[in-house]
Amino acid sequence: MTHADPVALAQALIRCPSVTPAEAGALAFCEAVLAEAGFSTERVTFSAPGTPDVENLYARYGTGAPFLLFAGHTDVVPPGDESRWRHPPFSGTVENGVLYGRGACDMKGGVAAMLAAAIRFVRANPGFSGSIGFLLTGDEEGPAVNGTVRLLEWARARGERFDHCILGEPTNPKHLGDMIKIGRRGSLTGHLTVHGRQGHVAYPHLADNPVHGMVRLVSALLAEPLDAGTAHFAPSNLEMTTLDVGNPASNVIPAEARATFNIRFNDTWQPETLAAEIRRRLAAAAGDAIRYDVVFAPTNATAFVTEPGDFVTLVQDAVETHTGRRPALSTTGGTSDARFIKDYCPVIEYGLVGETMHQVDECVRVSDLEALTAIYETVLARYFMPA
To answer: Per the confidence metrics, is the pTM higher than 0.70?
Structure first.
């Protein structure tokens, strides 16, 4: 196999059934490919109570600055009912110019393009000034405890310092030149419980219906926008995800009502300031009439943005060179490991089209894999050897 062929690399990775937290040979394959190309490599396993052990891979070519880091993950979500797939989910089948398999776009295809681009570049420019690194984890689709966040800490303790990072998540909605992610929203989950007193519906004066209080509190949370958005972010949004009393009887007033909500927030807020605002709204609506508790789940997902500048422009230019499209700069979507990397260096996300990620028949066009490899290779050339 030609290790600079992104399609062959992606097929080999897809054939490793690396459902989080199983490594299943995916990181071992990446390590072997990079080592053959002259990268120094280290596999590191991290552990934490209550979470699975996770294998990770760190690799570096060169010793000087600047240091451009490629980051990504080789773990994937479960395939679900495999009988519903057009091709077996871990077969890496190519049909009519499309590569099928779990992880094809999220994000084994992106990892393959990074590997191929880096190998091509170092083969053509073995004495370039600077360093190329790979930070690959097997814990992005899982708890995200023993993966990128720990590997970054490990690298810093060894004296590694990065100048910029490209995370190869699938960022494009429809076409390869659509979008670069320059930031991500934060995520905060709250659990709200309203306490009442159980009783007979025919005698409401002898009971205290918590549903009435829950309706008032939820209305208070949704009545006013949290903010108007910022320069790079849409307004923060609060979504109720559950409302439940667990009451099977139609003639009983329940003892309590429960709700869960999630807020995807912009850089107006930190988790602590946002939680304080939610508590303020609830207290104002509850007064002395409603008894309730609100508990916020721990979060490591804070909003961040990489301000547009020379590096962002360089990547935009490379994308436009190969696709004819000028990618928009976006902060949409869920969370990613970029939330950890941003504490170490400026990070942007650019990868494949994500239309089928986590779906049955996840797939990517072969032409997109080849074009993404060319984009990454152009980024490397312009980054290390500017005109």
So the answer is: yes
